[in-house]
Fold these 2 entries.
Entry 1:
Amino acid sequence: MKLGILIKEGPYMHQAMDTAYNFILAAMESGHEITGIFFYNDGVYNRCATLEPPRDERNIMKLLTELELKGVRLIVCVAAGKRRGIVNQTVCKVEEISGLGQLLELCITSDRTITF
Amino acid sequence: MKLGILIKEGPYMHQAMDTAYNFILAAMESGHEITGIFFYNDGVYNRCATLEPPRDERNIMKLLTELELKGVRLIVCVAAGKRRGIVNQTVCKVEEISGLGQLLELCITSDRTITF
Amino acid sequence: MLHIVKKSPYESSAFSDAINYMEQNDIMLLTEDGIYAAKKGGKFEGALKSLMQKNAVFCLIADVKARGIQESEIIENVKVIDYKGFVEKVVEHNPMTWS
Amino acid sequence: MLHIVKKSPYESSAFSDAINYMEQNDIMLLTEDGIYAAKKGGKFEGALKSLMQKNAVFCLIADVKARGIQESEIIENVKVIDYKGFVEKVVEHNPMTWS
Amino acid sequence: MSEQEKTKVMFVCRTAPYGTIYEQEAIEAMVMFGAYEQDISVTFTGDGVFSLKKGQDTSLLGKKNFSMTYPILIDDFEISHIYVEKESLEERGLTEDDLATEVEIIDRNSLKQKMGEMKALLPF
Amino acid sequence: MSEQEKTKVMFVCRTAPYGTIYEQEAIEAMVMFGAYEQDISVTFTGDGVFSLKKGQDTSLLGKKNFSMTYPILIDDFEISHIYVEKESLEERGLTEDDLATEVEIIDRNSLKQKMGEMKALLPF
């Protein structure tokens, strides 16, 4: 099944990104396709390139980059990002920044869209 | 009276910083002294240098910098900042980054400490 | 003490938690989404009126107006104040924020 | 539909709002702080049991364990599932998240 | 595009305006979604109904008053439906007269049914 | 420093662990504050009491289990008092046996009084 993911909360502050990450790993292991992860609201902070959590803590930014290397598409909302300072200079990868139309595209092309 | 301010929420997401800003202006107009604003939890995002809100919206980062020019001390928690990517390269002014001891210092030197 | 409530009583326990902690002479300030507790005809009118038998309650005019609530829609005896009034309350009472 | 509840019922209306929206055949998944609704002896045991007369309720083992709740402390008939089970529920039902 | 081919997406707005940014960024998404010729509807339930309260004046806050967008969502931005839940209005002491724009006031049971017809539900 | 000169600060922990970071960053602050020889106390009320539940195991979440810090807050980090509100425990079906560390269980009225003695209250 094709699954689209919407992330509305920032890293560490809320558990949302952690739950989503574990959900995505399990979905991929079960053979489902992740059509993309769209970061909106404070969710855009998850793609800030300069995160430096303590060494004994998970690095959410890096975990997401690993998902990307496995072929998962990451999309940071340009408008929500600009408002919060997640822009070309601060985001992990400039290509990830895109418009809200991509969220609707996820809804259209995915069998399920799930919000975290 | 000496008033210390603790900000626990990020810009735009919650109204906390807006309420605090209006409170601080009113306190200064009434002749009170703001001993400092300590940014903790997601509050550190308020000092991200790259905020670009739409033109018809307030720029919280700039409003805070104006307060600083009026002599208000701004302090971004180093640990909360690192975890979230608000570090030397991304913060408005490197000198603002400091440790949690500064929050206790605010509690000691202020007649009132108020959390937003 | 000054108990500052900034979450809607419909979606958060902040308002009822604050009430539980109010002592004689304590006051409450409703700000941000907390001001919905002060609206006439809402679910929390009874709780607020019962609180006001012992404690004074204030609400912030900027938040009231932003949310389209007219002063006539505010429960009687809730006092409407501005940011300067907010500062005065903090000067008079040690603040605790319930969010 | 699958109703996902991720806030504590003690501090947020998410749990009761979700209950209000449950239709026949809908199911509920308690995750993150939502799992406190599934704890025996808590304030919401009655509400959950009443819901379970018509609808199945699941909770996520990772969140249960993190919060120090033993499986024996979970209200009977609440089914404990892992992230793979979570995925299966999303495959079976269209999800709506209450936070 | 025929009606059958359109994707049905519903915004479920549950938060009050101004206290958080959710409602404002939900509107920004609605406005964008409208351009894509899909079947987009918007539901206000719980504290979300407060977003429609008429007479909002944010000048003392320094924040943008975004309630002006609701009345033009359907005509200018191609949103199919705006629903408001009757029970949530009542619980908050609000009536149709309190609302800033014309909307479809429907009861919870009808709303549940509509939610069941959606391909995607976006909570805000 | 004499007891009279010390500043009395209380952390008021009202949130459950793991769902948000508040409790974890509250602990990080407590640990730092302890070093400054002031009079620091910590109160758990509302959902905050869940932070003290024993047997926490975060291995399946991938998050750090920070509940190990509570038992050493007083001895190692110079926190003066850890209070837990009796009424909040009861409402959640918890008893003293459920707690991960020894704390002072006190009722709401006594807690109100202690809060009134503080110079600063830091809600988390």
Entry 2:
Amino acid sequence: MTDTIETSQAVEHPVMPFAGAINQALDIAMELDPKVYLLGEDIAEPSGGVYKVTKGLSTKYGTHRVRKTAISEAAIIGAAVGSAIAGYRPVAEIMMMDFMAVCLDQVTNHAGKIRYMSGGQTPVPMVIRTSAGAGRGFGAQHSELLEAWMIHTPGIKVAMPSTPADAKGLLLTAIFDDDPVLFIEQMMMYWDVKRYGGPVPPGDYRIPFGVADVKREGTDVTLVSYGRQVHDCLATATKLAEEGISCEVVDLRTLVPCDEEAVFRSVHKTKRAVIVHEAVQKCGFGAELSSRIHEELFSELAAPVQRVGGANTPVPYANNLESDFLPQVHDIEAAIRKTL
Amino acid sequence: MTDTIETSQAVEHPVMPFAGAINQALDIAMELDPKVYLLGEDIAEPSGGVYKVTKGLSTKYGTHRVRKTAISEAAIIGAAVGSAIAGYRPVAEIMMMDFMAVCLDQVTNHAGKIRYMSGGQTPVPMVIRTSAGAGRGFGAQHSELLEAWMIHTPGIKVAMPSTPADAKGLLLTAIFDDDPVLFIEQMMMYWDVKRYGGPVPPGDYRIPFGVADVKREGTDVTLVSYGRQVHDCLATATKLAEEGISCEVVDLRTLVPCDEEAVFRSVHKTKRAVIVHEAVQKCGFGAELSSRIHEELFSELAAPVQRVGGANTPVPYANNLESDFLPQVHDIEAAIRKTL
Amino acid sequence: MSERPDAPDRDTLLAMFEIQSRIKLCDERFRSLLTSGQIQLIYYSPRGQECISAGWGVHLRPDDYVVTIYRGLHDHLAKGVPLRELWAEFLGRATGTCKGKGGPMHITHPASGLMVTTGIVGSGIPIANGFGIASQLDGTDQVTVVNFGDGASNIGAFHEGLNMAAVWKLPVVFVCQNNLYGEHTPMAMSTGVEFISERAAAYGMPGVTVNGNDPVATWTVMGEAIARARAGEGPTLVEARTYRFYGHLMGDAMEYMDKDERKAAMEADPVVLYREWLLANGHASEGDLAEIEEVITAAIDDAVEFAMNSPFPDAAELYTDVYAEAQQ
Amino acid sequence: MSERPDAPDRDTLLAMFEIQSRIKLCDERFRSLLTSGQIQLIYYSPRGQECISAGWGVHLRPDDYVVTIYRGLHDHLAKGVPLRELWAEFLGRATGTCKGKGGPMHITHPASGLMVTTGIVGSGIPIANGFGIASQLDGTDQVTVVNFGDGASNIGAFHEGLNMAAVWKLPVVFVCQNNLYGEHTPMAMSTGVEFISERAAAYGMPGVTVNGNDPVATWTVMGEAIARARAGEGPTLVEARTYRFYGHLMGDAMEYMDKDERKAAMEADPVVLYREWLLANGHASEGDLAEIEEVITAAIDDAVEFAMNSPFPDAAELYTDVYAEAQQ
Ligand SMILES: Cc1ncc(C[n+]2csc(CCOP(=O)(O)OP(=O)(O)O)c2C)c(N)n1
Ligand SMILES: Cc1ncc(C[n+]2csc(CCOP(=O)(O)OP(=O)(O)O)c2C)c(N)n1
Ligand SMILES: [Mg+2]
Ligand SMILES: [Mg+2]
């Protein structure tokens, strides 16, 4: 564990659900800066968002700052882009990540390129929050993770936290960052306090971008992951520890920028790496990272880097198939064994 | 050179521009099968498309089969999807690849997933032709290559030819394939007969998907590429041959399916590989391929696989910067030297 | 409750009642099994909207096409998707319409003309045009009916789709099932017009608003629009006003809905009122209607049992149907 | 050619003439340098559309916002983008508005309120709303004018953007510069309505069509729409009808355009007619107008020289401005 996490646990911060930590970060950001405002579908009271993540905020800050929109994702992101250029710090919500496909032009061609195309004159400080992920029986059009699209698009930063504390600290950083940030929240973690809850430091707590967090130290193999799959890596590490296999778990936390140094440092020590993410493995971020590790540490590696990602299929509906689609502990375990 | 190409040259087929070969493939497909129809912006006569690629076809087949649309990319792809399910073989044109971002939902969530979501009942046999690529001073929003997005989306096939003969042979295969195919045409090649023209076999000439073509044989290093960058690889190979460095150039031709076997075969021989594509390097298809090579041939490799792709930036306008953005012969050369 | 001179013949009236009852009873079964915890799934109830699908359902031929959305159970049943395969798909079984791989949001059954069910708001609209193009090129008189909500009328795909259909005079009927809410947002808070049908003029297309809880009026309006399309005279936008009895999806706290408004809507349950009207005007006896309901109930019993006893898909199915060939 | 009771005061009339002439002369210089091969770039001539930008240009304050498209030279100049930086950007020089990195399709000059130039048809519309939201939240009376073509009115972003602006009463004026063609396609072949302004009703927004080649009428309509927005009364859709003299882009063979139609349009050159009208009605003497033109010509001479003599961007610029910090 890093200092950050240890410190926060030492003083025993209250355990919160993942969604609660995000709500708190939004609340604090809006309190701190009148230029922060939210827009998206159904985000205002009385419901406070379909997953209740924005609960209470429109009551506290008014519906001019928590703006409920029509089902018009291109209009949502476009409005965020324009107001960001005009000096605001909009936080737009795209209800599920698969819907990014209906507004990707505003994200990639506009949010991502406008700073560059203007020669630096018009930064676009905005956040796109989106919930994502399989495991809920929502089928092929409501379950995808598409971070790779945005990582392949220069100009956009990408964060994907694994714990409530990281979610809060990274979201506050994202909102006050001067670039567009895609902020990915795996829905499975929102309200499941038992599995994904955790202590959250109070107040204006920020975690810098581009700093990975070693969530577990180990010596035999490095597991590199981010988001919910960090928990699967930790579970695998616990399991293999019984056999005396020591796994280090590196949580990237942000993918753009990516703390490659932390990864290299760890792999330099363990000589072995397995990359784990929920997104489809083919052409996912694991491919980039695997290439980078091979490019930099080729002669040090004891075995080729392994990848564990979603199956190369749309997300199936049936429960058993959906489980098989997702990377699971046994898949991670098998990949680790390939490196040993 | 493969047999195919040699054969075709042996009988001295007429040299055609890249765009002409595509026009011919469309013509033949429409002639062969009344279920083939085209739709897209400006594709009908009198202009025959803004790049004249569909010249003559609406006159020959009528405007009911060569359908000029409004500027409504989502409507274009959606219409293609529906009619494909209903038994047609639509060929939709998206004028430039960057515009895929305005209709990506129809491409990935619908064209790409409908076969799967229906349990195989409703195949979606359609082609999306799109022109792409930097080098023409069109700036950041008209120059991108985005094949990685689609390769990361299971259900879509992807072809990206490098020569007029391949363009014709692959397009005919694409049209009669039972899956959605993204067919990428680098605009720089359309009418530049001098640099990109070539002999084209007449008639219903087809090239199967998933069969790479060794465009030049060599022994010291394998250059893996596709599309226009194959020509840059060949130029580099010619240059280095003077120094006695022997490069093999493998042209993938289709990326989904990808002829990994051909790549592995070549790298097994040369022990070294450089992957070259125009798309932004970070999280591009080169990352996937590099990972695959390392995963399969780790112990055989003499050096880590190198990648040469577009810079990690939007495409700049100024001529000198745009050249620097693009992978060039000197970049490929430098990457090769890293492997030696 | 008085007789309607505009009503269709008895067979049609009873056919509409059959469809409505099938939807209502199916929905009730889903909700009761969900509430009791016997099944678990994301469920978007169509209760309250039965008359609309029945209204177009009785006009369509088996070879006509229907496209719908996640809230689609009523449309699936109106187009004749068989109960067994439908239930099995909702439960993710190998015997489902889509082998359990699509699920409720993606019911597909080409044999009955149910071509696409999409979970992306508005996206079925451009796809429906594709079916219209196919019929137009084939020279048949097939019609495509595409269903979507009031919320969907604010997304770009609606605009592009309606414009294309109008320009090409496609044989498509655009049915906006206006239940006054898109998820948790009342239509007035998101939409610049009072009637979605007003938007038709932006494409030079006829647009009409009908009380979607009035089976006879809905039947009439749908019939006209379908006839127009079948005659090659082009598309129509039909806005059918209705109400969702159970909010957006099962488990919805509905705190954003007006309690009295909902109470009034449920008291004016269109299926119940229609049943009473049929009886009051002598179109059917209590026995006739009870028998229809009993047959449906028995069929649902059978379908539930079939589905519950069906196997989950084989693990290998994860990798099939991605491409025409085996994995690429 | 008679006097117009609806005309603005002399200063405004001359200010409009100045903008129109600046556009016309700049365009002529671009085309002549392109034709002679002295410069090379993708060039979308705005010739024929000058009155429209002049019409809103004289109403706007420097702190008002403008968003436009690839065919944007006239809008850039009407909003006051300085000639030197503009020319340098068109030629891809380090001294350009965007250091040569954006190019003609992406001219940005916040100092004069030219906020975004986009190459993606329709995409400026939702972005303009963002500026409107900012002004609304700031409580200022700034106005945003967003320009786009007739073709853009068929894309989803148009629909979503106008609906959002209407629902939130944003201070945005939507200016559709209807030049009757989208690339090689005549409007009637792609668009379900005859007048784009008819589409405003789909959002409960006022819509008006004006002859965009009539400077006085255009000035009046723009003034009303801008005043409405400034007063917080919400958005307006203004359709200004006009013509592109030189087709879609430089080099266009224009085989898809009606020869007589184009000839007639060019004979009715709105800048030339306006000049004649100013003279005929004594608003200015030949000397007044010639002087305006001479000043502009000199400024263009200066700008061309400045741009031609400016350096290309430093190679390191490829990697800057991607993120706030150095490369990630
Ligand atoms: C493009 C897109 N945006 C958002 C959603 C999430 N979503 C699902 S249903 C829905 C409301 C749709 O309302 P409406 O069209 O009125 O249909 P209804 O559910 O009322 O039948 C929303 C916002 C989605 N599925 N697709
Ligand atoms: C989304 C998108 N589709 C297609 C294009 C290619 N394109 C560039 S300009 C243009 C025509 C636009 O017509 P209109 O809106 O009338 O503007 P005009 O060029 O006439 O000023 C098209 C189709 C594009 N840039 N963006
Ligand atoms: Mg609704
Ligand atoms: Mg136009």
